[in-house]
Amino acid sequence: MRIVFAFLVACVSFFSFAGPQLAGRVERVMDGTAIAVRIENVLAPLSGFSSGNLLQVRYVGVGFSKADAEKAYALNSLLVGGKQVFLELEEKVHSEDGSLLAYAFLDGEGWLMVNAILLTAPVFSFVPTPGANRYDSILAYFDRVPSTSILVCPVLYSWSEAGKHVGERACVEGPVASVGTSRGGDVFINLGKPYPDPNRFTLFIPARHVGKFEAMFGSRFWTNLLGRTLRALGDIRLYQGVPEIELSDPLNLSIP
């Protein structure tokens, strides 16, 4: 991920307009930029909307290519799937498929904008929408300016000492010595020592979760990691005598 969230909060808040008008829960992620939302509460005077309505919503200003459709869907699902969201609508403009155009937020005060967060991932791009440009400057900014992700660690161990802390939830940091994949599509990232050295520390990403990491870091991202220092958050465990962390959420992996 390419964003410092504190800066995102400050910028979106500064440029904020009306703020969220509807609160609801995502019942279905349609694709990388569209969601079906069941309205739970109308927060501001807004005609034609009431609790219980099911709305098809598309994010303003965010697009992706057909080649990246699967990755975009995975990242959107990770961010909002099944969660409560807060919507600020573009009341005068609809998308070509008839969906309502909106700015979605993860909080009721309109600080954390989903549109802007998605644009920090390389699979998404800023797409101006005629007649819906209240946040164009901030969306364009987060599409083009890279930044470093922040991983909040309860405690940090180097790859060489992490094996002494089996059973703890912690961050482990170290240089990538080797990478590999299984026939089933699992990804193995070995820190400090290469496979099959028993003194290595392994970051294990099961095949069923690899798509989420590719949506965040790019297709086959592990092929470009040799020599880079990574940090991962998770429960330290032993597998066949080798300490490892199993990763299912890309937000728990920091790649500088």
Short description:
By secondary structure, the protein is of the alpha+beta class.
Mind summarizing the main beta sheet? 5 strands, mixed, barrel
Spans with pLDDT under 50 lasting ≥5 residues? 1-16
Task: Calculate Rg over CA atoms.
Answer: 20 Å
Strand share of the residues? 35-45%
- Structural class of the helix and strand makeup? alpha+beta
Enumerate the strands of the largest sheet in spatial order, edge to edge or round the barrel. 1-2-3-6-5
- The fold-level CATH name of the largest domain is OB fold (Dihydrolipoamide Acetyltransferase, E2P)
- Mean of pLDDT: 86
What is the total tally of β strands?
Answer: 14
Core attributes:
14 strands, OB fold (Dihydrolipoamide Acetyltransferase, E2P), 5-stranded mixed beta barrel, 256 residues, 2 domains, 19% helix, 5-stranded mixed β-barrel, alpha+beta, 5 helices
